[in-house]
Amino acid sequence: MKKLLLLLSLFIGLTLTTIAQRGERIEALKIAFITERLSLDSKTAEKFWPIYNQYEVEMRAFMQQRKKGNDDLSAEDMLENEQKALDIKKKYAPQFLKVISNDQLSNLYRAEKDFRQMIIRKMKKG
C-alpha cells in the first residue's frame, strides 16, 4: 500500500511538472511569436510586456469567470460577455498606444488569434 501511494505521488508530481513545463514552453513561444509579429525592438519590448502581462491577467480572469456559467447562456448573455472582453481591450488600448503604433496594436490582436489557432492545431495533431 505504501509503495502504491509512493508511486501515485511520484506520478502526480511528474505529471504536474510536465504540465507546468508545457505551459512555460507555450508562454515562451507566445512571447517570441508576438514579439516577431509586432517587430518589437528590445527597448519597446521592455515597455510593452509589462502592459501586456497586466492585460493578459485581466483577460484570463474574465475568461475563467465566463467558463463557469457558460452552459445555458442566452444570446443577450453571450453578447454581454463579448462586450466585457471588448471593454478590457478598450481599457488597455491607450496604454498600448503609448508604446506601440496603431498598426502594431491591430497586429497584436491578430497575432493573439493566430497563436491560439496554431496551438489548437498542434494539440489536435498530438
Give a structural overview:
The protein has 126 residues and is mainly alpha-helical. It has one domain. Helix content is 88%, strand content 0%.
Mean pLDDT reading: 84
Uncertain residue ranges: none
Order of helices and strands: HHHH
User: Largest sheet, described in full?
Assistant: none
Number of helices: 4
Helix content estimate: over 70%
Alpha-beta classification:
mainly alpha
Instruction: Determine Rg (CA atoms, Å).
Output: 19 Å
Number-wise, the strands total 0
Tertiary shape: globular
Number of domains: 1
What topology emerges from the helices and strands here?
Blueprint: H1 2-38, H2 42-68, H3 75-97, H4 102-125
Q: Which tags fit this structure?
A:
about 130 residues; about 0% strand; mainly alpha
Give the gist of this structure.
This protein has four helices and no strands.
